[in-house]
Structures are given as structure tokens and as C-alpha cells.
């Protein structure tokens, strides 16, 4: 999945907000990186500097763990599109924001395809995703197979992961963990549908 800089920064903001809510203090740069898929602390600092410049974050210079969101997170960033058919390269970009204060720390992905209609997830829906790296069997997850992202029902069996569609017209994706790179981006915790 190619993640654009704006989307990465939206993920950083969501992570910082969630971390502060859970721990009562902000995360360190070293904690932010792995949570949003950035390996370099220098790259994390670069994104944080831009968020401070844009007025999205406040920071006390020279003080550790001084980050705080400048504006209350009463909306979720729509960070891109996700395949609900065959996995496709997911290009993320902040398209808009939706007010949902009780889902702070989450982000939205717009569904493309019809593989999850049996779970009530339709083409064009916005799934609310809690960013996390683990899932339980039968959770609906956003998963990354190599550089392709998809939303499917998750099941772990021995050395395999099965990503099951909720539409009989689509085949499950079976991933051999010993051969293929797979990563969970998050778990779907809600859905928004626009009826316009």
C-alpha cells in the first residue's frame, strides 16, 4: 500500500490522540514510528514538524513527550480507498473528515468492490478502522499483502491466514505465513454509509 505523506500524518494524529487517551501522556517519537509504519525517527520528526507548522499539533521545544493535538479530534480523516474485491494498490489521501468523537484514534477507508456485501459492507461505504497490528478470528480486518490492501474476515489456521470474503462470488485469500508477507493494518469497528 502506497501511503501518501498527508495520510501518514493523519495516522500520526490519530495515534497520538489515542495514545494520550489511553496513557494520559503523549507518545515518544520512537513509539510513533512503529505504530504508523515509519522506521526512521528522523522521518517521524519530519512529519511532526509539518503537523506543528500546520497548527494540528502543539509541542514545547526541548521537552520530551510534549506533543498534544491543537484541535480536539471530533472528526475522522478519510485516508483513502480499500479493495473489497481483488486486492489492488491502495492509494491513500485525506479526502474529507467526518465527525465521530467517540471513535477517536480511528481512521476511515472508503470501500471499493463488493466482496464484503454479506457483512453489510457495500461498495462506497466508509469503514471505521481502529489501527492495530493484531486481530481475533472472525474480526473484519484491513490487511496488507505485500503492497496490496484489502478488507476481509480474518481467520488464522496453523501457518496460514485466511482472508474470507462475505460474498460467494469471491474466493478466500489464503496466505502462507512462511512465504508471504502479511500485516494487519487495523480492525473494522464501524461503518458509515452515505445514501445520496
Automatic annotation (TrEMBL):
Signal sequence, renumbered to the chain: none
UniProt-annotated catalytic positions: 115, 152
A GO term for molecular function: DNA binding
Domain LexA repressor DNA-binding: 8-65
Keyword vocabulary terms for this entry: Autocatalytic cleavage, DNA damage, DNA repair, DNA replication, DNA-binding, Hydrolase, Repressor, SOS response, Transcription, Transcription regulation
DNA-binding region: 29-49
InterPro entries: LexA, LexA-like, LexA/Signal_pep-like_sf, LexA_DNA-bd_dom, LexA_repressor, Peptidase_S24_LexA, Peptidase_S24_S26A/B/C, WH-like_DNA-bd_sf
One GO BP: DNA repair
EC number: 3.4.21.88
CDD domains the record matches: S24_LexA-like
Keyword ATP-binding: no
Site positions (Cleavage): 84-85
Stretches assigned to the Peptidase S24/S26A/S26B/S26C domain: 77-189
Reactions that this protein is recorded to catalyse: Hydrolysis of Ala-|-Gly bond in repressor LexA
Family named by the database record: Belongs to the peptidase S24 family.
Subunit organization: Homodimer.
NCBIfam families xref list: lexA
Physiological role: Represses a number of genes involved in the response to DNA damage (SOS response), including recA and lexA. In the presence of single-stranded DNA, RecA interacts with LexA causing an autocatalytic cleavage which disrupts the DNA-binding part of LexA, leading to derepression of the SOS regulon and eventually DNA repair.
Name of the protein in question: LexA repressor
Organism: candidate division WOR-3 bacterium JGI_Cruoil_03_51_56
Highest classification ranks of the organism: Bacteria, Bacteria division WOR-3
Amino acid at each position: 500500500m502506497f501511503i501518501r505523506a498527508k495520510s501518514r500524518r493523519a495516522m500520526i494524529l490519530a495515534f497520538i490522540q489515542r495514545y494520550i487517551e489511553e496513557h494520559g501522556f503523549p507518545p515518544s517519537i520512537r513509539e510513533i514510528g512503529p505504530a504508523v509504519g515509519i522506521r526512521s525517527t528522523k522521518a517521524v520528526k519530519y512529519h511532526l514538524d509539518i503537523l506543528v507548522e500546520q497548527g494540528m499539533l502543539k509541542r514545547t521545544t526541548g521537552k520530551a513527550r510534549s506533543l498534544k493535538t491543537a484541535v480536539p479530534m471530533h472528526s475522522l480523516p478519510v485516508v483513502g480507498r480499500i479493495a473489497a474485491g481483488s486486492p489492488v494498490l491502495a492509494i491513500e489521501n485525506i479526502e474529507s473528515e467526518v465527525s465521530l468523537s467517540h471513535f477517536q484514534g480511528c481512521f476511515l477507508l472508503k470501500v471499493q468492490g463488493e466482496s464484503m456485501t454479506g457483512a453489510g459492507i457495500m461498495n462506497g461505504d466508509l469503514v471505521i478502522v481502529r489501527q492495530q497490528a493484531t486481530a481475533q478470528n472472525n474480526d473484519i480486518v484491513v490487511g496488507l499483502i505485500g503492497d496490496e490492501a484489502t478488507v476481509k474476515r480474518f481467520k488464522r489456521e496453523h501457518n496460514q491466514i485466511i482472508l474470507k470474503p462475505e460474498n460467494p462470488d469471491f474466493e478466500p485469500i489464503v496466505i502462507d505465513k512462511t512465504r508471504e508477507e502479511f500485516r494487519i493494518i487495523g480492525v473494522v469497528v464501524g461503518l458509515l454509509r452515505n445514501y445520496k
